[in-house]
Amino acid sequence: MPIATVRGVDIHYEILGERGPFVVLQPGGRRAGAGVRSLGEKIAEAGYRVVAYDRRNTGASSIAIEGESENDEWVEDLHELLAGLDALPAYIGGSSSGCRLAMILALRRPEDVRGLLLWRVTGGAYAAERLTNQYYTSHIDAAKQGGMAAVCALEHWSEVIKVNPAARAKLMAFDPRDFITRMERWRQSFLAGADHPVIGLSPAQLRSMTIPTCIAPGNDRVHPRLPGQVSHRLMPNAEYHEVLAEDRMDLDIAFEDWEKKEGLLAAIFIDFLRRQQRR
Description:
The protein has helices at 37-45, 70-84, 97-108, 125-152, 155-163, 166-172, 176-192, 203-208, 225-234, 251-260, 262-278; strands spanning 3-6, 9-16, 22-26, 49-53, 90-95, 113-119, 213-216, 238-240. The chain has 2 domains: 3-124 and 197-278, Rossmann fold (3-Layer(aba) Sandwich); 128-190, no CATH class. α1 crosses α11. An 8-stranded mixed sheet has the order 1-2-4-3-5-6-7-8, with helices on both faces. The chain is of the alpha/beta class.
């Protein structure tokens, strides 16, 4: 994969397709860009150039735990990456945390965004508690109890180190107290928007986003239907598409459901993109 140095961080990316408008996709969690490659290939086959990439602290990209907010760092990285690729404005898509990233980019830099492709929008008390622990509290507790070696042993960082062995040295170089302070800062930023129906965005912010948007709600406890429905109701130029009819308690089963429906999701997004082009 090509590498772009963005804000001092090496970002691994690829462009699927050779012609057409640019579309950017981000997976959920802190997953690498490979998580959206299959969907990206389907959209690229329809005549688009799809950017799939590893965000900082994911996949093969660099480790950089900086700033007041993890989401803000990802947003600014994406802006600089696309500017360097001469890919702006672009259609921005994402699932779960990738969905949140796409929406925050549209809020902060609306000139960068031609339209939004959103699936599995995150919200609700269960999601807020689970994700706060998954992303931040578990990392803080590990650093307190076992230092940076315990952090490296966490599932996410173990996976990152497998594809990017240099990540271990970068993580081990942190003073655990400094790492804890940075994670606490990120946790506080996340919690500031956790009570909203859509985590990270207030109802007023959603109302202010007039960019054409295609929304496919989730079907599990972290991505219940309500956040997608709220987004559709409040965003002035949003359309709503149910991809899955059955709700799931088990997140792994829900994820498998989405893998099986990837072709339908791609068709919905491609239809949306083509209609936007005609306009």
